[in-house]
Amino acid sequence: DGVNLDEMREFAKQFKLRRLSLGLTQTQVGQALSITEGPSYSQSAICRFEKLDITPKSAQKIKPVLERWMTLAEERMKNGGQSLPDYNGFESSKKRKRRTSFTPGAIDALNDSFDQNPHPTGTEMSELADRLKFDREVIRVWFCNKRQTLKNTIKKIKVPPSPES
User: Fold this and answer.
1) 28 plus 67 within the same structural domain
2) What mean pLDDT, rounded, does the chain reach?
3) What Gene Ontology biological process does one annotation of this record name (predicted)?
4) How far does Cα 85 stand from its chain's mean position?
5) CB burial class (10 A; 0-12, 13-18, 19+) of residue 67?
6) 71 domain residue, yes or no
7) Nearest-angstrom CA–CA distance, 130 and 85
């Protein structure tokens, strides 16, 4: 497609280094770009670009946008701007909940409970949450994730290997 892959690899590597030197996350870059360029420049788009997990044509399309934005961000940094609003003009209103860390004892209790009943009622989840000192929603999500993991594991075991050509 006329895309110089070595040049693109080098740009992606340099972009990531420049982003990190500014202390910015992929999410922050994605939020800033979504405001000016539209929703197709999300955190996952930035991540895929940095890993070059996109088509060469897509990489060629996003490269000038990233270059232009990074140059502006670096100029703002040089001029004394250091916080996220200085890069994208707004403070993120969407605060993500921190990832829950389960103690080994809590994991054992959750697994024991799952073994007895993979689909507990709301009351059972509330009681388990109270006993383990977690929000009920955290327990609910843990059960959903555990069921999905089990389902995916069973699918992998059942899928026959594809025939060799």
Assistant:
1) yes
2) 84
3) regulation of transcription by RNA polymerase II
4) 21
5) middle
6) yes
7) 39
Last residue in a domain, options 35, 58, 88: 88
Asked if residue 108 is part of any domain, the answer here is yes
**Environment class of 19 (CB within 10 Å of its CB; exposed 0-12, middle 13-18, buried 19+):** buried
Report the C-alpha gap between 103 and 13 in whole angstroms: 37
Task: Answer yes or no: are the C-beta atoms of 30 and 41 closer than 8 Å.
Answer: yes
Domain that residue 38 falls in: 5-88
Per-residue model confidence (pLDDT) at position 1? 58
Tokens for 126?
């509330």
Q: Which two tokens stand for residue 127?
A: 């009681």
Q: Give the tens place of pLDDT for each residue, 33-62.
A: 888 787 778 888 889 899 888 888 888 888
- What's the number of domains the chain is made of? 2
Question: Between vectors from CA 33 to CA 32 and to CA 37, what angle results, nearest 5°?
Answer: 135
Residue with tokens 């059942």: 158
Domain match, 35 and 78 both? yes
Residue 138 shares a structural domain with residue 113: yes
- Is 96 among the domain residues? no
**Cα–Cα–Cα angle for 28, 7, 15, rounded to 5 degrees:** 15
Using an 8 Å Cβ cutoff, are 125 and 136 in contact? Answer: yes
